[in-house]
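Known limitations

Files may contain more than one protein. Parsers should not assume a single record per file. Below, a two-record file is shown to illustrate correct handling: read the sequence, read the token line, then continue until end of file.
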Amino acid sequence: MESMQPPTGSRAAAKAETRAALIDAALAEFSERGFDAPSLDAICARAGFTRGAFYVHFKTREDLIVAVVETVLGALLDAVIGTDAGDGNLAQTIDLYVNLSAQGRERLDETGAGTQDWVAQVPLHQLVAASERAPALQDRLRQILVDALDRLGDVVDREGQRGAVREDVAARDLSGLLVLLALGLRVAADLRLPVEVEPLRAAVKRLLAR
């Protein structure tokens, strides 16, 4: 008798869709209410699934938070730095990050901002506080930042080989400076500091040029 079960590929696709829906729902809840307020029931209800479906994909609420952060920050890094060693250049990377930060800052004043703007909507201090309570999240954040350092270091190395950036500072040091500047810009946006992003962008490029 022919089996009525869906093909393995279909089951895998449905499972992936359920996981993505739970992550999207959590992302929306965290954007609107912060990390602590949303309950698992609220997240599951928003996604249209039960707690049983949740536990198929995540062992704990902490695991879900880690997945959300991985999804959002991973996409941000891919957008800004690129996914391939030959993607983009340093000037383009700086421009992309500053543009995304400026757009995010403007959207903080808009109502009904989409979940794609989660990085702008959730203050950095909330993410740091959540990571202090959740060792797995802290470890994953650290890994993401180390990945950013490594990927930026590759970009700086490539730019150095073609004579586009100064040679008297190590690539790793330059990439560290850029990551710290990026974090500082995020804090400035959270605090509503009167930072002019265009002069800042130009200053960074002048400092890195030969």
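...continuing to the second record:
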Amino acid sequence: MSVNQPSDNLDALNQETRELWEQIAPVWDDFMGAEGNSFQTVLIGPATERLLGIQPGERVLDIACGNGSFSRRLAQLGAYVVACDFSANFIERAKLRTTENADRIEYRVIDATDYEQLMSLGEGQYDAAVCTMAIMDMAAIEPMLSALTRLLEPGGRFVFSVMHPCFNNMGTTKLVEEEDRAGEIVTTYSMKVRRYLHQPTVKGLGILTQPVPENYFHRPLHVLFDACFQAGFVMDGLEEPAFGPEHTSPNALSWLNFHETPPVLVTRWRMAG
């Protein structure tokens, strides 16, 4: 697993990951648009907003902000946002898309795996922090978690979302079965989990049209949560959103058809004590 790689390997993986995302960023920006795709607008965004509970005037750090879709939503909710990403390409595109509430968002090129870079954002300056669907793209998460314990003010909360480690990883297969039950055609959607505990760092396509595959760093729940616990966080909120029956797709294997399987996990953390 990536979290057990020697530090020199992690540095190389992180550099490779950054270079890949510089190439992928334009395609992702076009695909996500100003507000994000259905994953963001139906599943991730609403769950994250519920767990964050943003109040007008709060300062929020958006880590690995991509093209800034959620940063703009936070500003719309009345927050002041510092948004960062290690892809300069993404940050430029985020700035171009920010036409409203621009005075509430500051974009920075920051590598979330670099503790010192994160600390340059200001100790004790943030009421909340968020990281949307990016932890599985990070070669290491310990520097980010350690920095957050100092970047957040006392009582501050951290909400992150990831591809669900149990059901949405490179060791799972979507299954669609059709059978005739006494004259009624019944379609069943399910998942086959081939590997969960131990997966190597692998490349995959988040969008079929992206020019190169990206790196995926799988962390099973006990590894993901233990990293947070070791940093001094406790979890006090969790959601596993899935698409409802009102969402369907003619593509049988689309996540829109898997109504009983959550493709994402969203959690909230606070400092212990």
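Parsers that stop after the first record will miss the second one. For reference, the second record is described as follows. Residues 27 and 210 are 6 Å apart (CA to CA).
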